[in-house]
Amino acid sequence: MSIILIAEKPDAAHRIAISLSNTDPKEIKKNGVKYYVFEKNKQEHVVVAAVGHLFNLKQIKRGNYPVFDVHWIPSYKARKSCEFTKKYLDTIKKVINDYKFSEFIIATDYDREGSVIGFNILKFICLNEKNDLYASDKICLKCKAKRMKFSTLTKQDLTKAYNETSNLDFGLINAGITRNILDFYYGINSSKALTSSLKTQNSFTLLTAGRVQSPILYLLNEREKEIKKFKSIKFWQIELHAEFNGIRIIASHKNKKFWKKEEAEEIVKNCYNKKAIVSNLNVKKYKQDPPIPFNVTSLQIECYKLFGYSPSVTSIIAQNLYSRAMISYPRTSSQKLPPQIGYKKIMESISKLKEYELLIQKLLKKTNLIPRQGKLEDTAHEAIHPTIEPPKRKLIGNKWKVYDIICKRFLSVFADPAIKESINVTIDIDGNEFVTRGERTLENNWIDFYQPYIKSNDVILPDIKNGDELEIKNIKILEKETSPPSRFSQSSIINEMEKRDLGTRSTRAQILQTLYDRKYIIGRNIEVTNLGMQISETLKKYVPELVDEKLTKKIEDQMNNIESGKEKPEKIVKDIEKILIDVFSNFKEKEMDIGKDLSKALIETIKESKILGKCPNCKNGKLKTITSMKTGKSFVGCTSYQEENCHTAFPLPQNATITPLNKTCNTCGYPIISIRTKYNKIFRMCINNKCETKENWKNRKKPL
């Protein structure tokens, strides 16, 4: 009799097999899918791989919204984009038929989604159960099923997880199943409703909304409206430029803003030919604590700020590093590093990389290794950290950057606080006070460990004291305007989602990317398109429940209660069904009006999304994406083709999402665009295929 282990992805299956087997496991390949066989404790083990969800929810019968009759079916039958999953499902079926199993071990990622992936394979393939939506412990009566819980794919952690397998966590599984059901209910019904409303205007475009997506779009739209209605007001500031012993000092008048220019001019006039005397000097030493360990949100924010990676790209890179056992589980909310992970062992392991050798030597001289911890905890996983298995070969590009920043952050949290000195200075000119602030670092400590990912904010002032006279070089009046509220960046909206408890740590980046893919939002500093604004306004007007973040947060709380066993999934789902029945009944009554509003915005957005920038050739036209009616291929052409006889045209990558960035190439002046391939790879490029930046394009391992 054999034991079958179910892994979430092929890389994880391979890691589990080589970690648990005493010798090299036997690798068997069927239809391009590998599984592994080895003997342990005198018993045969077989490790099989899923490739994410092998089962998805699907509407049972065709019909109009609202839809609540759903069941689990193989993913390749549910979605065309999931056809590649069939060979993995067939391989697991074959393994089940070829071997006799006495025990099943779910070894997927220990979170809600991983638990659903593993349980559905166990239920529908291994045990060939009927299609019941939820999970129950009756499954355990029919088979011996256990759970491996691990936070890294290292040999040490996987062996420990295997030796300490536990019973299946049905609270976690049902919380994940409930999330899938409710997200499907929201997604399928809102999509059907929006699409149906467009059909009333003879438009057949697919539009979507979602349980978390719609409140986030509404949040972004409210900020967009604040920006558009904002009216700038002029104000003036007074800036003193002085010197002491040849060192420049810049100070501002203590009244930061003057709403009348005459007031500022009067003060400058009064300061003419007067002395500038240091009237107050306040020197203060303080400690600057090290940063706290990364969780998924802070890692996404830091990588966006430093490298410009979108949250979804950071998640993909981190997942790759995790699959290769280099870092711990990345989709964690924890900001804590428990001693059990073995601080010293990890440091000794990564010290083999020359980049960290000297830094770690400093840390290992300390009597105790005590990290600075954050407040947030995760019951399943610790904060993100490097493992005891550093890369064997040099990482390059974005993988190295993300790995390096994780290692540097991990090391810095164990270092001593930096010692800083701040100096607040008041300068008096005939009763007019100007203030400035200096700062300098006395001891770097943790700052040395986090280089080059922290910039110095030191402002060095000359060695002055009370009563010193400064030489006035200039007193300027600066004209400025009040600024509108700033747009959310991809990192700040992810942070805001976490603060508001919208979405989960695993889904936030994906939800944001969906808003981009649907053309509801554009730009690094997020701007809501006409279509995004219209959908948000329409939902708020006709079905406000769909943009209500309180309802979304309530559902998240209920799923936490399911996980802890306080609530039953069936009851929560039935309660939400009742709400959605009322919501979409109201929607149906106003379909025609909704369709009119959306159709106009859709046409405008499609037009906007095709414009890439001005044509540097004819100067008058705009470059836009055009799809050839003859070949179906997309290319770039100029709108002045007929008027100016401008034949400017360039090829484009096919089967890709093209996003204008409103930026031009520094080399040739043509627009730069973002490309998202069907394999989810993202890169930027100049559209000009003759640009110097593309001279070695074919030889590059990574596009620009």
Using the 3D structure, state the CATH architecture of the largest domain: 3-Layer(aba) Sandwich
List unreliable stretches of 5+ residues.
none
Helix content: 25-40%
CATH classification, class level of the largest domain: Alpha Beta
Largest sheet: 6 strands, mixed
Summarize model confidence as the mean pLDDT.
91
Query: Which radius of gyration do the C-alpha atoms yield?
Result: 30 Å
**End-to-end separation:** 53 Å
Order of strands in the sheet with the most strands?
A: 2-3-4-1-7-8
Percent of sequence in beta strands: 15-25%
| Total strands | 23
Shape: globular
According to CATH, the fold-level topology of the largest domain is Rossmann fold
**Class from helix and strand fractions:** alpha+beta
Number of domains: 5
Tally the helices: what do you get?
Answer: 21
